[in-house]
Amino acid sequence: MTGATEARIAAVLDRIGRHDGVLNCFTTILSGQALAAARAQDARDAAGEPALPLAGVPFAVKNLFDVEGVTTLAGSKILADQPPAATDAFVVRQLRRAGGILVGCLNMDEFAYGFSTENAHHGRTRNPHDPERMAGGSSGGSAAAVAAGLVPLALGSDTNGSIRVPASLCGVFGLKPTYGRLSRAGAYPFVSSFDHVGPFARTVRELALAYDCMQGDDPHDPVQCTRPIEPTVFGADARPPRVARLRGWFDRGSPEARAAVDRVAEALGGAGDLDLPETDRARSAAFCISASEGGALHLPRLSLRAMEYDPATRERLLAGALLPAAVLVQAQRFRSWYRRQVLTAFEQYDVLLAPATPCMAPRFDDPTILLDDAPVPARANLGLFAQPISFIGLPVVTVPVCEVGALPIGVQLITRPFAEALGLQLAERLEAVGVAGCQALDYV
Distance (Å, rounded) from C-alpha 133 to C-alpha 78? Predict the structure, then answer.
């Protein structure tokens, strides 16, 4: 007789099989492994063992996370000849230990260098709200899989906006924790000085549960964050949050982006206005550091096998490898200065609000967006409002607002370092009053 968990996982695999041909979220589906894990969970249930936090919950991971027995592609072709991973990435292992069942690996921009998940090797991931539109990137497969109801949880990474951009365009909740808060061990790097990992989910409680389960000390973590495990607590009475809308640089988006921020601000009890200094330079510095660190990481392979890279990735990595060292030094100096300026804002405010993307999901056949009434390439500019924040390592919960237009758009709830719990609590408040969250799609 088929147990309840096995039946649930079989239904998830069937749904993926029926819909992923259109959406192209998955690069690997682990059917046999997932069903075996489901049968093991059914056996634990039958034996009356204590329930685990994620018992029987299916999840999937961006294909830059190591999965035991699977070659880690990081969206590339050039890594396909590498041996399979010997162990899971730390955060994958944590989710499995909590009872989660891994069903597959998800599409992404090659080496996480992009905002659209249009991959020359694995194809483009399509937005579940409109398959003719972008899902965002680089964690587009992760966000789209959750938005379409193929899995309730997925893992992504965020260097310049790669969780927040697809969460915004696909209409799901996403968490980019404080830099170093979750272990990056076993996640293929892009820009080590500001790579982050984090979850996607359709509800705030699910997002927080995944985040809580992924916490933990890891001796192999390259950042070696020593913060204690801090489970998220909901429902506690607290004073009204001090809220500020980020203005200036962050006003350049579409009317829908500005309206979404205004709706969130109103629901949180009103907001002041704050113009962060030199944010245009922060974005430029983030670009310079990304190009330089990424180029240095890939230069040995680029020197020998450049034509095996996605052309859109190859040219930027080569340019980054040639960037003068003086530019990188100046960008890092500016980064330290900018971080100090932004942190002073939290002396007056608890949470800063900004659009997650300048607009709703662009169409593939018109890959431009309007900034200051001028068309610019979407692929390079969808992270316009995300880059200056991850550049300095602040935690962000992206909440989807779905009533301001036909498509969703996200708002960033930015808090001081290690205040993820506050961002999640405010996100749940927005979800409870109907400001944040999108209705289930027909894929479910």
Answer: 28
For the entire predicted model, the pTM comes to: 0.97
Catalytic, 62? Answer yes
* pLDDT score at 404: 57
Q: Shortest CA distance to 260 belongs to which of 403, 415, 163, 428?
A: 403
Q: Which of 62, 176, 183, 390 is catalytic?
A: 62
Q: What is the pLDDT of residue 286?
A: 97
- Give the pLDDT band of residue 224 (cuts 50, 70, 90): confident
The tokens of 116 are what?
A: 């659209």
Q: How far is CA 435 from the centre of its chain?
A: 21
**Exposure string for 121-149, b = 16+ CB within 10 A, e = fewer:** bbebbbbbbeeebbbbbbbbbbbbbbbbb
SS3 of the chain: helix, strand, coil, percent, to 5 = 40, 20, 40
DSSP 68-129: BTB---TT-STTTTSPPBSS--HHHHHHHHTT-EEEEEE--SGGG--SS-EETTTEEPEETT
Domains along the sequence of the chain with CATH: 4-282+325-432 (3.90.1300.10)
Percent of the chain with pLDDT strictly greater than 90: 90
Q: What is the pLDDT of residue 229?
A: 77
Q: Examine the pLDDT at 277 and tell me if it is beyond 60.
A: yes
Closest by CA position to 328, among listed 216, 210, 219, 191: 191
Instruction: Judge whether 140 and 161 are in contact, CB under 8 Å.
Output: no
Least reliable range by pLDDT among 107-111, 233-237, 358-362, 426-430: 233-237
Is residue 143 within 8 Å of residue 170, measured between CB atoms?
A: yes
The question of whether 176 is a catalytic residue gets the answer no
d(CA 309, CA 301): 9
CA angle 154, 160, 164 (to 5 degrees): 40
Backbone angles phi, psi at 157, to 5 degrees: -130, 160
pLDDT average, residue stretch 349-367:
96
Cα(70)–Cα(424) distance, integer angstroms? 33
Considering the candidates 139, 157, 162, 168, report the single residue annotated as catalytic.
162
What is the pLDDT at residue 236?
67
Mean pLDDT, range 246-268, rounded to an integer? 96
Does residue 34 have a pLDDT over 70?
yes
Return d(Cα 116, Cα 114) in angstroms, integer.
6
Active-site residue (options: 116, 138, 183, 292): 138
Q: What is the DSSP letter of 132?
A: E
192 belongs to the catalytic site: no
Closest-CA residue to 351 (of 231, 431, 264, 252): 264
Q: What is the DSSP letter of 67?
A: B
